[in-house]
Amino acid sequence: MLVNLNDVLIPAQKGGYAVGLFNTTDSDMLEAVIAAAEETRSPVIIGTAEVLLPYGELKLIAPSVRAAAERATVPVVMHYDHGLTVERCIEALDLGFTSIMFDGSAGDEAENIALTRKMVEMAHAKGATVEGEIGHVGNNEGAAESDGDAKSAYTTPEQAKAFVEATGVDALAVAIGTAHGAYIKKPCLDLDRLAEIRATIDTPLVLHGGSGLSDDDFRNTIKGGIAKVNIFTDLCLAGERAVRRALDEKIGYLEMRNMKVAEIKAEAMKKMVLFGCNGKA
Is 120:90 a contact under the CB 8 Å cutoff? Predict the structure, then answer.
């Protein structure tokens, strides 16, 4: 069933678990994540991000995600992640996404607030939800989207409160030491800062850069108030493992494809159980 962020994150926050956002660039990843959610009876957030559109164009992937969400027997949010431009965010809403993230965190803070507020007004008019980001979750050196700077500007409780009050966002991504892409070294998460932010605002909090964190990192951040965790790189690595194994074993393309779906599904199921959202659909 197709829902928005409020439908899955408000219960997650109350219940002390998190819901996974799994970005998908093709039907193999989409099939795997939906199957994982169905088997574990987990609410799930599925979508794509603006930086991923060269690998799966929005007009191509959107109808597939929406059709899969509408057929599913578990709650599925259709989420446009890290929308960097107003134009692309509007396109996502027009294509039927039930949630968008507008990410102006790397630029001027006042402009980020103004544009995020604009997107909230537009999305809410369509019954869609909006995630914003204050502070900046950086990129790991060597990651696919890396700018060579692995340092993040951490979110402060004061920033979080002011941002939520000024924009009316439904969820807030906070920077507490994670980064996008594969980690070169173990991240140092500021759990005290997370607790302070959680104590300051009621808005569901989001952890970006989840792939590569330890199980304890996930448990501790969810315990500290995270209600949504973003995963992409770990799904890619799972698919790559299946492809390499198939090539080594000289397995044909169609069976390779099935192996890839199964491997990605297993990784998504592992995360759903770890996040505690299994059985919550």
Answer: no
Q: What CA–CA distance (Å, rounded) separates 246 from 244?
A: 5
Asked if the structure places residue 281 within a domain, the reply is: no
Range of the domain at 117: 2-275
Q: Number of C-alpha atoms within 13 angstroms, CB side, residue 43?
A: 25
As a whole number of angstroms, the distance between CA 157 and CA 170 comes to: 17
CATH number (domain holding residue 76): 3.20.20.70
pLDDT tens across 43-52, in order?
A: 999 999 999 9
DSSP strands (E only) in the chain: 2-3, 19-23, 44-49, 76-83, 99-102, 129-134, 138-139, 171-174, 179-180, 205-207, 226-231
Cα torsion angle, 102, 104, 109, 110, sign: negative
Active site residues: 81
280 within a domain of the structure (yes/no): no
- Chain centre distance of CA 47: 8
Mean pLDDT, residues 190-209:
95
Number of H helices, E strands in the chain: 10, 11
Q: Please report, as a single letter, which amino acid is at residue 184.
A: I
Looking at the structure of the chain, the number of domains it has is 1
142-175, pLDDT tens digit by residue?
333 334 344 447 899 999 999 999 999 999 999 8
